[in-house]
Amino acid sequence: MEPTPEIQLIVATVRASNALLRASRRLFKPYGLTEVQFNILHVLQDAKHELTQRELSDILVVDRSNVTGLIDRMEAMGWVERQPSPGDRRAYRIRLTTAGRKLWQLAHPAYEAAASEVLVGLTSAQIKAATRSLEAIDSGSAKI
Fold first, then answer.
1. Residues of 86-112 as b/e, b for ≥16 C-beta within 10 angstroms?
2. Ordered DSSP codes for 70-96
């Protein structure tokens, strides 16, 4: 029995996600980074202000308890630092250190080049359509 188009799309998405995950692990290994650590550096680099751990977990769509451990390890490596959050003694704001910013500046060009290489066979219109489709799937998954 032939799978439905919906199942074919889900299987293709999972396969592509797994392939990208494997490629990102290979890409970031020489920098001593995991893909999630790079994502944190990337989010903090682009942020207009320091972010709380809760904001980071919401942006990255990961569990808050996982962010705490990640930030602990990244702080020990000297890549980020916690600052007390004004008005909330329980919260901390996370910011990049000089070392974290330098690491991001080293790894980011490789990331950009790899992203371009992965998507080389797609037109700009196809990339935009795929992005819209994946965002629609993400929005729809909240209903499940």
1. eeeeeebbbbbbeebbebbeebeeebe
2. HHHHHHHTTSEEEEEETTEEEEEEEEE
CATH topology of domain 5-141: Arc Repressor Mutant, subunit A (1.10.10)
Strands (E), 1-144: 51-52, 80-85, 88-96
pLDDT, residue 119, reads 87
- Domain range list for the chain: 5-141
Strands (E), 1-135: 51-52, 80-85, 88-96
> CA 31, CA 123: separation in Å to the nearest integer?
30
Distance CA 116, CA 137 (A): 23
Q: Which residues in the chain land under pLDDT 50?
A: none
Cβ neighbours of residue 127 closer than 8 Å, sequence gap 6 or more? 119
